[in-house]
Amino acid sequence: SLDSPWNVPTHKGDATYQGFRGYLAAEFPGFQWSGENTLGHGPRHMGYNGGDISTLVSRAPAPVLRTGPCYAIVVYFAGLNDVVGGHTAATMYSAWSSGIQAILNQRQGHGKTLVIGVTLPRMESYYSGYTSEKQNQLAALNNSIRAHAVSAAVARYRAADVEHVTHNTINGMKDDGLHYFNGGYAQI
User: Fold this and answer.
1) Given the DSSP bridges, would you call strands 155-160 and 113-118 parallel, antiparallel or unpaired?
2) 183 within 8 A of 170, measured Cβ to Cβ
3) Which phi and psi angles does 173 have, rounded to 5°?
4) Which residues, including other chains, have CB under 8 Å from residue 65's CB and lie 6 or more apart?
5) Residues of the chain falling short of pLDDT 50
């Protein structure tokens, strides 16, 4: 149902339609950006479409992680599909933290790495998969993301807390209550 403007080819190069990565790319134009669907928005959100935490690292661009020596900034924004799937916070955090460690293992010997662990935004009650239990598990996972630490000598970790970023509308149409339109991703 999101045919326009999301799938209009002229918008694909416009940062407004590229989710949070579009805004980061505008702020850091010299950085190499990697991920799936690098020219789009809408349902794919400039990242790893449809993946859960356990498959994210296997889909990450290993050659980029092993490039170096260089500084790497890894924006680690994962877990919404797991929450929707009904996983527990403990199960999700175990996979989440294992994923960060796998990324740091690939980066070993290739330079300094900053991992930004992004908390998950709250679901709106109008989201089709919403339940209060899923929301509770999301909040518990976010607490673990905030408290996470890494011990690698050339890596640092910081949490970016986006749990309370308000869902948004475009031309009176609400987002789906889980993902955002460009205004919400600008805040993230």
Assistant:
1) parallel
2) yes
3) -95, 125
4) 72, 74, 103, 106, 107, 110
5) 1-8, 38-46
Assigned token pair, 43? 């349902």
- Integer Cα distance of 179 and 23 in angstroms: 16
CA dihedral 26, 22, 16, 160 (to 10 degrees): -100
pLDDT in tens, 60-106: 777 778 888 888 888 898 898 899 999 999 999 999 999 999 999 99
Rounded to 5 degrees, φ, ψ at 6 are -60, -35
Distance from C-alpha of 22 to C-alpha of 15, rounded to nearest angstrom: 4
Residues with Cβ < 8 Å from 82, sequence gap 6 or more? 52, 53, 91, 92, 95
Residue type (1 letter), 183 = G
Residue with tokens 């990450």: 60
Instruction: List for the chain the helix, strand, coil content (%; round to 5).
Output: 40, 10, 50
Q: Please state whether 182 falls in left (phi above 0), alpha (psi between -120 and 50) or beta.
A: alpha
* Contact (Cβ atoms closer than 8 angstroms) between residue 188 and residue 180: yes
The whole-number pLDDT of residue 47 equals 52
pTM of the predicted structure, to 2 decimals: 0.80
